[in-house]
Amino acid sequence: MENLERKNISSQIAEKLKNKIINGEMKIGEKLPSEFELCKIYEVSRSTIRSSLQVLVTSGLVETIFGSGSYVKSNKTNVIVEKKEGYNSLNDIYVIRKILEPNICKIVCEKILESDIKDLVQIVSKIENNKSNIGILKENVLKYHLKLAEITGNNYLINTLSKSLIDLSTYDIDGIQSNIEIYYHKEILKALLQKDNKLAFSLMEVYIDEFGQNI
Predict the structure, then answer these.
(1) Which of 14, 48, 71, 160 is the most buried (most CB within 10 A)?
(2) pTM for this entry
(3) What pLDDT does residue 81 have?
(4) Whole-angstrom Cα distance, residue 97 to residue 165?
């Protein structure tokens, strides 16, 4: 096991892996240890490892191939991975989400493709089917919001929101209610399918305010 502080663990793991890639310990094209192996190495949950890998994917260092694993893509990062002091408070995350996510929905209404719809429908299904497993539910909620950012095609939005959501995943937040998560993510998706940007904006704004009440 590698030593980690018991705070912001996913970011610490991402930083350790990033350094191994940049320092040449892990070569371009090399396969990373499996999620199971990384869980054993760092003695953390699978959701924590997935959050760490998402940081590396967003930074451009790693790519994940479905059914195969994660591989080193580059040794030059295109986004800051380090967690800055004072940046990751829950209140900061709430403010960033309140500014960005409703407007992301407006952009998605204009840019969403059939392939995006298919991905979002699958994610919503996983949210709904795991209402009794908060860990898996939270993991898929994270994927949902990252997918919306991805659809915009705006790297600044993608990187900023991804950083905030990865920071969020390091906190244990009380008061998460499965029925609320299911309701809003289904309703937001309906609004996106109808390309109703005002409704999508409003629903996301209310949803983020629900999040704000739990911090």
Answers:
(1) 14
(2) 0.63
(3) 42
(4) 9
- Across the range 109-133, mean pLDDT stands at 94
Proportion of the chain in helix, strand, coil states, percent, rounded to 5: 65, 5, 30
The single-letter DSSP state of residue 31 is B
- Cα gap 79→56, rounded to integer Å: 9
**Top-confidence residue, 111 or 14:** 111
- Three-class secondary structure assignment of 99-159: HHHHHHHHHHHHHCCHHHHHHHHHHHHHHHHCCCCHHHHHHHHHHHHHHHHHHHCCHHHHH
Nearest Cα to Cα of residue 149 among 97, 78, 87, 212: 97
Burial of 85 from C-beta contacts in 10 A (0-12 / 13-18 / 19+): exposed
